[in-house]
Protein 1
Amino acid sequence: MTQHIAPALVPAFAPDGTLRASINLGNPILANRNPEGGDPVGVSVDLAYEFGRRLGVPVELVVFEKAAASVDAVKAEKADLGFFAVDPARSEGLLFTAPYVLIEGSYLVPEASAVTGNEQVDREGTRISVGSGSAYDLFLTRAIGHAEVVRLRGAPAALAALREGEVEAAAGIRQLLEGEARRAPGVRVLPGRFMVIQQAMGIPAGRGTAAQEVLASFVEEMKESGFVADALERHGIEGALVAPAGQLPA
């Protein structure tokens, strides 16, 4: 059954009559530049346009290169909704839905490294490069007890640091790391994962719990109907799973 959105709630999402959707190009599972020009493409873009259609308002994509900038735009209400990894460090100022996709976080190491498992990375003397403010940065900041987390400006810088011998491991989206390993020899992805990233939709906290519940219901319908799975397949995305049904916010 298609969700009905009460007209009285539309201004909570689009106070100026246009839904401004914050799109993060730093996560290729969610969005990518359009090789033919124009708007970015990806599952997050598809969800934004579909939600705008439900609201009956036009959609404006507010595009960022890094997750942290995308989050900040929504918190500051320079965008009306966004697509983020759920993390306690991001909870202040945002209201999240349940996740719509799950993504693996993995490590990339030099081919010659003696490290063979994720559990071996957190050791004294090991430096791990991450994109500053990314889901991996937030998680590793809490989880790493012995290694050093080296925060750099985005995933490309984190990968370059590994190639240049400035760190012993790089953390990131498994799909992105596998692509880097295919691109040129000398590095390999460790088997398995060190975290599962829950990608959800979020709105500024000031928009209220009624708006959060509407958005959460939308996400559940998009998962159940096959919309998310179809979008992942249409955009050729591997390495992401449609999240199971999640509880609506209390």
Protein 2
Amino acid sequence: MSKDKDERKRPQLRLVVNNVEKRSGRPVAGEDDFITLDELILRCHEFRGHFYAGVGRLQEKAYRSLERYLERKGWAYGLDPMHGRLMVIPAGLVCPEAIVPDSPQQDEVLVFAGEDLTGVGLCLSLEMIIPFWSDDDAVMEDALLSAPILPYGMLFLEENRQDSYLDLIYRVALPLYPPAPTVRVLDKLFAVARTELAETLRTLADFSD
């Protein structure tokens, strides 16, 4: 009896499939101002002027370098000027292991270039919501503790504003000196993200079984 009660209290961590409203990597103030990843990619040229309007010189230089890098790689991407100037990339391009078979949903990787804490340079951040969830906070906390310790990035829990459940988020940050990232620096950033995301997803898949 007590075992059954405990199992009801601690639902299993599960993989998110076709659950866009709970897996948005970008803040949503309301449905009207949310733009899907596919639309951001389709309207990238249209949003570019708005994206760069008012951006500082160093930040613009970093984003332009990122755009050239992604175009050379042949990766689709979108520019979101409405939620803090985010570059949005399909997660499967960054980490193929992030693709959920037979799911119409496409998770996002967010890239942001902003001032670092020292105020003397920029910091390039890459972030993704890990597509495992539970409506039990204790299960999410266990998942965080069970996830691998990463040498470059970090995992943390953050409340989803839409449903108040916890999201498990991966983030890696890289200081830029000088501000414009080179191809070598960006190769390193995405290689780190792919390796660490793949390891995290494998570990959490085992945890959810």
Protein 3
Amino acid sequence: MTNTQRDADLPHSVALQRKKSGGRPTREEAVHRDARLLDIATTLFMERGFDGTSIDAVAESAGVSKPTVYNRYKDKRDLFAAVLRSRIRLWLAPISAAAESQMKATGVESVEETLHQLSLDMLAHSMTPDVAMLQRVVAAQAMRFPELATLAHEEGWLRAVRGVATLLRHFGRLGQIKADDPAVEADLFLNLVLGHAKRLALFGIAVVPAEEEVRRRKAVELFLNGTRTR
């Protein structure tokens, strides 16, 4: 007889108390617990680094047992990999999503207006503390976890390149710019707009928003001057 069947034979109040006091968690509870575990592990890894964080500390902070952690992750490396995958998708994907959303906007007919808005969205996101912290952690662990550095590159940068390249092809077809090699040109555009802020963030140097805005506008103008049809 299963636990569920046995619970069905108990008075409702007793069965309810049994669920509250122990027993197998529901799927919803398990999902919530796993998400909380990752959040706690993220905080500790970002604050203490990989070497300064232990499974004991993660389990204690999350309010779970060590076996609970090991049931989900085979070791600290596996847990760290899960944390980085989660953060990469959460923090880097919106940068590239900004390019994709521009294509869905109605009346996307001005290359200058579109690239200025796109660069504003991307730069604002790339300058948030969480993204800057992620960049430093991934860079510090790139040799130990090369597959995660690759994931960050593919999920973040290359997806952004594809999104911008789609926009450049669109405006190339409209005759507003000359887009001979949209993928290369998109990569150059992103480096012009984001390169300076990303480099400062990687070194932990504070970015001055007003100065970065001047650089952003100049970067868009420089790109447009080099790609506009004559």
Protein 4
Amino acid sequence: MTVIPIQQLPQDDVLQFFKEHWGSTEMVISSGIYDCSKLDGFAYVDEQNSILGLITYIIRAEECEIISLDSIVEGKGIGSLIVQAVEHHAFEQGCSMITLITTNDNLHALKFYQKRGYYLVEIIKNAVEQARAYKPEIPLIGNDGIPIRDEIRLAKQSGLL
């Protein structure tokens, strides 16, 4: 098992992964609308090159924004490894900050990132309502029965990478 750049995977595998885990390759968040299958990223693959984890990101000047993160096997360190791969790459590219956006219902992501040194830096009220105008299939209710309304931006300074 290993971490590889997403570009080393067959495009069909990447497309299928996003459709299976996100419903489509499109991510609509307050920082933009992204086709995750076209972004840079890293994948954690097994011996058969099956994707067990995948992360995408975009670099703008000195900031790297994580756009998506999926680990289909929980508790094995896969998410941590691919986040570290992005952090290392961002540092090499001269980024001074890594950011990401998640929704208010995603308590698992909030715990995951805070344990890895990320801070809550902004709450974007009713951002998901605006995203639904473009992508109406975004559910109204999320994890643990929590209404999905707001986005939360987290950040980590490069000195903490």
